[in-house]
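Hippocampus abundant transcript 1 protein isoform X3
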Amino acid sequence: MPTKVSKKVAGMIIRSRKTILKDGVMTTSGIGEPSVYHALVVIFLEFFAWGLLTMPVISVLKETFPEHTFLMNGLIMGIKGILSFLSAPLIGALSDVWGRKFFLLVTVFFTCAPIPLMSINHWWFFAMISISGVFAVTFSVVFAYVADVTEENERSLAYGLVSATFAASLVISPALGAYMMNAYSENLVVAVATAIALLDVFIILVAVPESLPEKVRPSSWGAPISWEQADPFAALRKVGKDHTILMLCTTVFLSYLPEAGQYSCIFVYLKLVMDFNEVMVAVFIATIGLLSVGAQMILGILMKQFGSKHTIMVGLLFEMLQLMWFGFGSQMWMMWAAGVLASVSSITYPAISAFVSMHSDADNQGLAQGMVTGMRGLCNGLGPAMFGVIFYLFHVDLNDDGKARDDSRSTHIIDNATTGHADSFPQEPVWAIISQLIPGPPFVFGALLVICALLVAAFIPEGAGVTNNFRSGSRRQSGLSMEVHYEVERSKKHDGLSPLSPLVDDSAIL
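Tokens:
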């Protein structure tokens, strides 16, 4: 029996992908064969469209929520992040059944759907941004698309290209959007962003081919569909089963929670509190983006010199420092210094992913990475909400001039001083002092969380295997194409060997 299967496997390896496509395994519309470049175009256009709106969104946010700008920004982005965390596994599972192209179309369309509402109704615009979180998982589908069209030894480079394309889309788009808004009008920026989003949808419809052939979808094997994979908490429940994974996930949670919160509000903070104008914010984004790309390029050198564990700790150290600078800084040059530190700290998550990859067995990669990704997805929802609430609790808000203020505390101090009410007067200056010493309280709180992450990371056993307790027998072998894997599993089924696993195994969480 095994001999028979081995012969069939050998036959599948000899046959090329083009021959299999010619046999009709993949029936799809599009230009050429599916490749990484199709995914890169989709990612670039989607985030270029949103990058154009960086400055207009800040202005509209201040205009719509003048009293609680930072709180509402945090709640809007927090709801979007939570919905994305809940829906990502389900959309990933459905894309394994119905194909990637359809869900690329759905996620891009609904993620960009709020854009034209910005010129129609601001309240509906922000409401739709929150609701669009259900479909704001383009990255998950794109990574699945890339996995379909690359071998495992090529995947790290391909994922790096996707991340670099995302960064490139934000290098010039905010500056271009700011220029058009100042030179012409906000409505023109919205119109151009809408046109680019529609172009992205059109390209997916016409030019992007399906990457998941019909015959390699689990439903075609006769396998039962398991919706356990669609459970967003499935990966998190497995965290405690392995000591090293538990420590890694704790490190990710403590470090990415403030990072997600920072990304949700930093550009609003720079413009409305630190008096950055539109051009300065755009240049800030471009500079930090370029420096981050440079930091990613030296990541491999750092890991060779210091090891993956110590590279993680270096990234965490820079993250803690940049959060402190953002929290205590009150001058523009301090914000620029913090931004440079932030670009270096961008190596933290890739270093964690590399650590997991190097210390996991080949058949455990998806499971371990899924746990870490699930923790990061949870932070995408909790981080922005946490920052918004802390801004609100410390009364960091805006007055009509756009300056940061301590809400009603300052006027209350004056009233107490003039009327002679001294009962609460001694307590009031404390808030004023805190506001002067710590312009950005959430950043300081985030720095404290990163210090805790550093302490946890220091005890991670660098030489230990990460996922020894998690074995997955249904993952396809390294170097085999999806079609070969399909034929192997079908051969096992027809030859009376072990039955197929449902849908995809628990290792493919996101």
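The chain has 22 helices and two strands.
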